[in-house]
Design a protein that fits this description.
Chain A is globular. Chain A is of the alpha+beta class. Chain B is α+β, with helices and mostly antiparallel strands. In chain B, the strands form four sheets. In chain B, strands 4-5-10-6-7 form a five-stranded antiparallel beta sheet. Chain B is globular and about 55 Å long. The chains are: A alpha+beta, B alpha+beta. The interface between A and B is medium-sized, with 28 and 20 residues.
């Protein structure tokens, strides 16, 4: 392949052959000499005091090496950190901030706050022995009353979880102009109000979580293999907050990781547990790998908001005020960035692609006796987009205006960029400025409408009616915030998480001309080994197979903040681009020396360095790399070796957008919803690998449709997880879905030299409201304005049954 | 997902199997697709698994007397789907087998295992009730045949004794002018039926001469909707008669409720799917196909 066309080429993923043939190296594939196996006893109660724990029977069972409880760890291991308290340090009219922080211990000591919180661990010669012995531990439980609902938890009389959090309030936070928004709504010609539940989800990566700890008594160093999206951050947090071990004495490695969807960003108890236990066992490695049921109780959940929206508008459908109050369920204790999701990542972008003059968002984060909640694919933005896009359809319905027109009348116009939204960050004391920098929202909307044949909608509804089906069409016009994030913004304590979010890349070109690119981001299915190689191979004119991408080992790769927030392309690949630029600059200087020319007269194209105007006076990058490496004839002052590192801090986030349209048919008799068409027009800027982009969009759509129609974690009132396994928690199957119809518009991001924006979350953000809006449209003949997800047949049927209208 | 320790034995003769099953704590292992997950989840435990997979007497599909079909208990869904014999003589069994589980489950799961396990939401019990099947049970003391009507006694409970093995399933030949059909509403997580209805009808002289209708997923155990059968038999099989019959789908049944479907939804769907199953079965009967 001509190297010049590598970026933008849909080449197949270089990592796939090993995954497809079973040659990958996932956490559970790793076997170390002398390895032991851990099994964790988890609370069967949602809320209970822990009395005496009798481990004597377990300790004497065959193969058992050790049994530990929370008290055994207490002197050595601190509670886990909450790295992102809610706050308003960056300004923008943020008020009313309260934080009452409680985080998990590695093993609970005094009490448990949800079913699944760990209280003891057995370590044995085999996983079977560890599991058997775990069942022999006897705990003297004192059950306490539980509460599982985010709003109910804050009411008087609810069971209290934490002494420092009256009424179970973990945080309160608000952004925007309260008075202006209230004035606008009370003066509005029309107001719509709705209570909207964004139900709790269980993320379900194919690879559950696991860790192996190995302590080296000779060097006093720890190695922790972990299923993490963020091995560098984990080393930092474990060192600084949990283990009290100097950072340079810990090495974190993420092997192949089979999906995460955000759940593997966080600092989990088991990371520290296996490392600590290995030291107790004088260096025997300790392995722990989650079962699926354990994953449902011990790995973070997503979403779980109860929202009250008020939208005021003119009779023409122009929104004048948008007020949102949200109760966010954060679980029994806080996960690493749990508070950041319903605040900064939600409230700051609630107005989406629309130019609303007045916005006010208030959030109450509550403690409940449920699994901790944190970022899940989209993290705050799917919740925001869902509230917003339901609101736009409610407004259209109230006014009898086409939902397309309501959206058009509120879009941020193309000449308004860069645009500061009224709940966004204007300008912080240190100069951060987060602005929607580009967009062309009507172009994507028009394209999607043409694809679906919007003018044929009435005829299609009639045709479906003749088959006993109710056809509905739903729109979602969305924006996304990718490329998180400028350190000046996200590093502000309170606004973000108190540390930077730059990214890194190192390129070494060996003597033989082969290159290794080491990056700070951490692929867990996204295809970094392909896309990052495409960027560097194109820039340096190397064959793509000559660029090996290494990641996810704190020893061999430069510090990076990892992969989440659709940031690996928008921040990480830009670091790789700049590292390649540094290599090119040095290679030009060396080529000038070799060709006896001036550096400024050297051109570099397709891997050839030549004197401008004399293409036959040239050296290949491989020849230059050889010269740089052997080092005996270098220009005065030049260091040997082509080895360059770049640390890239993005000046702004990136702002993908698009229009998704779902078409559904609802069976009148059963309430069954069939998604019959799905159209997605996304603008994710320039694409490094369109095949991978399409894959991300497909997967994202499926996950969002899953929330709309099938998924939902259900706790009973006592805090037992009823949807406790895949027998009861429904994730989408391919056969339930239509072929997706994808198209694009391309508005290059102005903030980076590749013009890329990021795509990991867009499908999930856009698809949930599109599908729900379609179902509600189908149910319009029944006078139904809103239903809470998932729109299972029983829910839809019950709504039709209780409707006063007959649906004809 | 690690089961508690158990002994595993794979007998090579029926006599050996009967000896092993006679010991306390033994349980027969067929395809394992229901039992092994329960063991792994530690929801049940056994001292000894007796793998009956190598017993030739439990395999095979053959034509019996009077056009009946005999399906060995250890026949997998895959074997059923590949069988010309089943497709010709009991096409509904093949049709439903194709929608059970996924490819891996169909490759390992057996029809006899499903029948003996008697999950109240599994499809095969309802299909075999509607088709009027009977089950051949054998122990050291001899062999007996039990009609499907008498076999399923409760959730995960059957007439099968601890010392017996289910040898085969016998399905009578469909009469002329008969048809059978299946309707189900899937519980989306497990893939089991929230409501599943099998209907088998015979038509003669412009009237419904016989009807067998069975439901699964609805009550504690798969059952025949005798009220619906009685209402349908002798009727003209017209739209009104079918709808009136379907209204009896849950007569006398304590209808299940769970997080996927409450009682009112399940009850309503039992009626809707019963009507659709009868309509489809009548259509097949009229079409001359003996489905």
């Amino acid at each position: 392949m001509a190297v010049g066309s590598l970026v933008g080429s849909p080449i197949k993923r270089v990592e796939d052959p090993r995954f497809i043939t079973g040659a990958g190296n996932f956490l559970d594939d790793i076997r170390l000499s002398g390895m032991t196996y851990a099994s964790i006893l988890r609370s069967p109660y949602a809320h209970a005091r822990i009395g005496a724990i009798d481990v004597s029977a377990a300790a004497s069972m065959p193969g058992v090496v050790a049994v530990f409880t929370g008290k055994d760890l207490e002197a050595d291991l601190n509670p886990l950190p909450c790295a992102w308290a809610a706050g308003g340090a960056a300004g923008g009219d943020v008020g009313g901030v309260v934080n009452n922080i409680n985080t998990p211990r590695v093993l609970a000591i005094d009490d448990v706050k949800w079913t699944g919180e760990g209280v003891a661990v057995v370590i044995a010669e085999t996983a079977e022995q560890a599991t058997d012995a775990r069942e022999a531990i006897v705990v003297d439980w004192e059950p306490l009353p539980a509460v599982v609902d985010a709003e109910a938890a804050t009411q008087d009389g609810a069971p209290q979880l934490h002494e420092n959090a009256p009424n179970n309030v973990a945080l309160t936070w608000a952004v925007g102009d309260r008075e202006g928004t209230e004035r606008a709504i009370s003066a509005a010609e029309v107001v719509v109000r709705q209570r909207i539940v964004n139900q709790r989800l269980i993320p379900n990566p194919m690879d559950t979580r696991g860790a192996i700890g190995r302590y080296d008594p000779g060097t006093d160093e720890y190695t922790i293999w972990m299923t993490s999206q963020t091995p560098h951050i984990m080393r930092l947090l474990l060192s600084a907050f949990v283990m009290g071990v100097p950072e340079h004495k810990i090495r974190c490695i993420s092997p192949d990781v089979g999906g995460a969807f955000g759940t593997k960003i966080f600092c989990y108890p088991e990371w520290a547990l296996v490392a600590w236990a290995s030291r107790k066992l004088r260096g025997r490695p300790v392995k722990w790998y989650e079962t699926r049921q354990e994953n449902y109780q011990a790995t973070t959940h997503g979403r779980d908001h109860i929202t009250y929206l008020e939208m005021g508008a003119t009779r023409q459908g122009v929104v004048t005020g948008f007020h949102v109050k949200t109760y966010a369920n954060l679980g029994g204790r806080l996960s690493t960035i749990g508070p950041g999701v319903p605040t900064t990542l939600y409230g700051r972008v609630l107005s989406g692609p629309y130019k609303f003059p007045n916005v006010f968002v208030e959030v109450v984060g509550s403690y409940t006796n449920t699994c901790f909640v944190d970022a899940y694919r989209g993290a705050g933005r799917p919740e925001a987009t869902y509230v917003l896009e339901r609101g736009m359809d409610l407004l259209a319905d109230e006014l009898g205006i086409d939902p397309v027109d309501v959206r058009r009348r509120n879009f941020i116009p193309n000449d308004a960029f860069p645009y500061h939204n009224p709940s966004g960050l204007l300008r912080s004391w240190n100069g951060a400025e987060i602005e929607v920098d580009s967009g062309d929202y009507e172009a994507a909307l028009d394209k999607a409408l043409a694809m679906v044949g919007y003018d044929q909608l009435a005829a299609r509804k009639q045709e479906a009616e003749s088959r006993g089906k109710l056809l509905g069409l739903g729109l979602s016009t969305y924006i996304e915030v990718c490329g998180v994030a400028p350190s000046k913004w996200i590093g502000l304590v309170g606004e973000g998480w108190g540390a930077g979010m730059w990214e890194s890349a190192n390129i070494k070109i060996h003597l033989t001309g082969k290159a290794v690119l080491s990056i700070g981001t951490s692929s867990h299915g996204q295809g970094h080994e392909t896309t990052m190689a495409q960027v560097v191979a194109q820039e340096l004119g190397l064959p793509v197979e000559d660029v090996l991408v290494k990641h996810s080992d704190t020893l061999g790769t430069p510090f990076g903040y990892g992969t989440y927030g659709s940031r690996s392309a928008a921040v990480g690949s830009i670091a790789a681009w700049y590292a390649a630029a540094k290599i090119k600059e040095k290679a030009k200087r060396l080529a000038a020396h070799m060709l006896e020319a001036a550096a400024e007269d050297i051109d570099y194209e397709d891997g050839k360095l030549f004197v401008r105007g004399s293409p036959d006076r040239s050296k290949t990058i491989q020849e230059v790399a050889l010269q740089a490496h052997v080092g005996y004839d270098l220009p005065e002052g030049m260091e040997p070796y082509l080895d360059e590192t770049s640390y890239h801090d993005t000046p702004n986030c990136t702002w993908p957008f698009g229009t998704h349209i779902a078409v559904v048919e609802v069976d009148r008799e059963s309430g069954h919803v069939q998604l019959v068409r799905y159209i997605a027009v996304d603008d994710v800027g320039k694409k490094i690998n369109p095949l991978i982009v399409d894959g991300q969009i497909h997967g994202g759509i499926v996950q969002g449709v899953g929330q709309a129609l099938w998924e939902g974690a259900i706790y009973d009132d006592g805090g037992q997880l009823l949807s406790g396994s895949m027998l009861d928690y429904a994730i989408p199957r391919a056969s339930w879905l239509p072929h997706f119809e994808l198209d694009e518009t391309v508005t290059p991001s102005p903030v980076n030299p590749l013009g890329v924006k990021g795509v990991g979350e867009a499908g999930t953000i856009a698809s949930t409201p599109a599908v729900v809006n379609a179902v509600i449209d189908a149910l319009a003949p029944f006078g139904i304005r809103h239903l809470d997800m998932p729109l299972r047949p029983s829910t839809v049927w019950a709504a039709m049954q209780s409707s006063r209208e007959d649906g004809r | 997902m690690i089961p508690a320790a158990f002994e595993y034995i794979r007998p090579t003769s029926l006599d050996e199997a009967f000896d092993l099953l006679a010991e306390d704590g033994s349980r027969a292992l067929a395809g394992g697709h229901s039992l092994l997950p329960l063991l792994k989840l530690r929801l049940t435990s056994v001292d000894r698994l007796v793998d009956i997979g190598r017993l030739r007497e439990l395999g095979g599909i053959s034509a019996g007397a009077g056009g009946a079909l005999r399906i060995g208990a250890m026949t997998t869904y895959r074997d059923i789907l590949d069988s010309e014999e089943v497709r010709a003589r009991a096409p509904l069994i093949a049709e439903v087998s194709g929608s059970i589980g996924d490819v891996q489950v169909r490759n390992r799961g057996t029809i006899g295992g499903s029948v003996a396990h008697a999950d109240p939401a599994s499809d095969m019990p309802a299909v075999l009730l509607a088709l009027g099947a009977s089950f051949v049970l054998r122990s050291r003391d001899g062999e007996r045949t039990v009609a499907a009507d008498d076999f399923f006694t409760g959730a995960f409970a059957t007439d099968l004794r601890a010392t017996e093995l289910l040898m085969a399933i016998e399905v009578p030949a469909p009469g002329t002018g008969s048809g059978a059909a299946w309707q189900s509403l899937m519980q989306p997580a497990s893939g089991y039926s929230m409501v599943g209805v099998a209907a088998a009808v015979s038509v003669a002289g412009g009237a419904v001469s016989a009807a067998r209708i069975a439901l699964t997923g609805v009550g504690e155990v798969a059952y025949r909707a005798t009220g619906a059968e009685e209402a349908l038999a002798g009727s003209d099989g017209g739209t009104q008669a079918v709808a009136a019959a379907a209204d009896h789908a849950t007569d006398g049944v304590q209808v299940n409720a769970d997080i996927h479907a409450d009682r009112s939804y399940r009850s309503a769907m039992a009626i809707v799917l019963t009507r659709r199953a009868i309509e489809a079965a009548l259509g097949r009967a009229a079409g001359g196909s003996s489905s």
